[in-house]
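4.2 Preliminary Data

To establish feasibility before requesting continued support, the project team ran the inverse folding procedure on a target of 282 residues. The structure was first converted into the token representation described in Section 3, and no sequence information of any kind was made available to the design step. The complete token record follows.
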């Protein structure tokens, strides 16, 4: 079952499971939408047989849950009854809007033994893993310049919305090693500097006119554009790991790593307001 239908992700997931049948034996059977028209469209386009008026109507009827809202502040609360019922749950990115809320949620899930995970699909895929290999082969990197779509004034959580893609990708490649962040603004245009343990600085260019990602690294051999040498698999590893967790209970990502990315986003949000260095606090 899936809670949330305003995102295109809902139809994409439904098509993958119900139409393309990339995971035999897995079907998306239930959907709840923020508005009736969202649910109706998702059900029609994705061949989802059941629409529920209340997310809790899915309790006792599903084996796994996906929560998919545009704004992260809506992600955790509706999942709580399912966590308490032992239903494995994937929370779409960003996992939460406040680290403290995320800590309580994950502690509850851990105490109950219910598997939970969350990540950006832009970070967990074959292409990003290949870029990580290139970084390991490149030797010392002092500076990174990363381009990606981020609207600091987004109605769906400002820097949290889409910013999670850049943050999750960087932590996937370099680990949870960011110490502090600083945002610099000119009107609603902005860039961010991320200071890493060991001295590296990554500058994030928040793009608002196009949707694309680009990564440049300063190495001893010069400026290296980090481009994947492989194609993303179908289905990609991010979906494979999600279904594996649903089936086996094995979580693909440490809870501490999920919370670290949210702490970076929360620090970035604070720096959007202060334009000062903000420490990462988990």
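Position-by-position output of the design step:
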């Amino acid at each position: 079952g899936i809670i949330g239908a305003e995102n295109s992700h809902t139809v994409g997931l439904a098509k993958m499971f119900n139409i393309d049948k990339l995971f035999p034996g897995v079907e998306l059977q239930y959907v709840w939408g923020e508005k009736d028209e969202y649910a109706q469209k998702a059900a029609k386009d994705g061949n989802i047989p059941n629409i529920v008026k209340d997310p809790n109507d899915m309790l006792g009827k599903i084996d796994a849950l996906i929560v998919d809202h545009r704004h992260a502040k809506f992600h955790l609360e509706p999942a709580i009854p399912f966590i308490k019922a032992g239903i494995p749950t994937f929370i779409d990115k960003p996992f939460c809007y406040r680290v403290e809320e995320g800590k309580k949620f994950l502690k509850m899930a851990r105490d109950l033994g219910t598997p939970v995970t969350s990540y950006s699909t832009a970070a967990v895929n074959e292409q990003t893993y290949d870029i990580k290999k290139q970084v390991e082969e490149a030797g010392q990197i002092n500076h990174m310049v990363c381009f990606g779509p981020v609207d600091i004034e987004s109605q769906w959580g400002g820097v949290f919305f889409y910013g999670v893609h850049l943050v999750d990708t960087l932590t996937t490649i370099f680990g949870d090693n960011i110490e502090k962040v600083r945002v610099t603004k000119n009107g609603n245009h902005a860039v961010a500097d991320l200071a890493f343990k060991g001295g590296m600085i990554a500058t994030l260019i928040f793009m608002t006119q196009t949707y694309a990602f680009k990564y440049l690294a300063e190495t001893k051999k010069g400026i290296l554009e980090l481009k994947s040498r492989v194609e993303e698999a179908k289905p990609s590893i991010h979906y494979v790991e999600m279904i594996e967790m649903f089936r086996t209970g094995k979580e693909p990502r440490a809870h501490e790593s999920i919370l670290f990315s949210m702490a970076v986003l929360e620090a970035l949000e604070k720096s959007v307001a202060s334009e000062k260095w903000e420490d990462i606090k988990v």
